[in-house]
Amino acid sequence: MAADELLRIASDIAIRAATLAATRRGEGVEVAASKSSPEDVVTHADRETESLIRSLLAEQRPDDGFFGEESDAGTGTSGLTWIVDPIDGTVNYLYGVPHYAVSIAVVEGDPDPSTWRALAGAVVNPAIGEVFTARVGGGAYLGDRRLQVEEAELPLALVATGFSYLSETRRQQAEVLVQLVSKIRDIRRAGTASLDLCSVACGRVNAYFERGLSPWDHAAGALVAQESGAIVTGLRGRPAGREFVLAAPPRLAETLGKVLERLHPLDGGLAGSGLFR
Q1: How far apart are alpha carbons 32 and 135 in whole angstroms?
Q2: pTM (2 decimals)?
């Protein structure tokens, strides 16, 4: 199937799911469980929204695989897999912060960021009605407006990031920011990875980095950033993934990447650093 048709499916379903998530937010949110730590929560709305997305995809794309945050993965026979975060930014959602999103991407291959080829994706923020979309080779859009990243010099760069839900890792990440913040314009921490990546695409921040992201956190947003002209990568030549994600215009990605590498002096990979445990 052509990427433009896959994009239509992704965006249509993401908009329907976003409507459900916003409705449930208006009715009041209940925590269903915690995940990696007591601070890392999942709501009943997360599960209900993913169930809706999964059922709609099964109707239209029954041969595709499915890989979502809140339910078991399903394999397919088509070679395509849908990567879904039903509510990215759940803590924002829980507190009523209008910065959360439904994120849906379809990739060719296994649900592994190091090997997949992203074909289409949509990120919808229902709180303010924004719809970001991208398809491979077709550009990135906010609504009908095509997005194009603009370069920024490192000292003038507004940089977004995120933090682990594990308190010790969060402390170590903060230590990196203490060393980084004097080298850039400022830091932003909004709490929704998919929207942070889209913010790079539309110029609300100049760069974004984070470690510990799951595939559903960045699959759609990374494609939006890439199709706007940003580089999305890991550190030291590695692909973007759980280990590290950096998104920025090409020249800034190079200079910021070198700074981040210096702040994580490692031999043999990121896993050796306390920051990346």
Answers
A1: 34
A2: 0.91
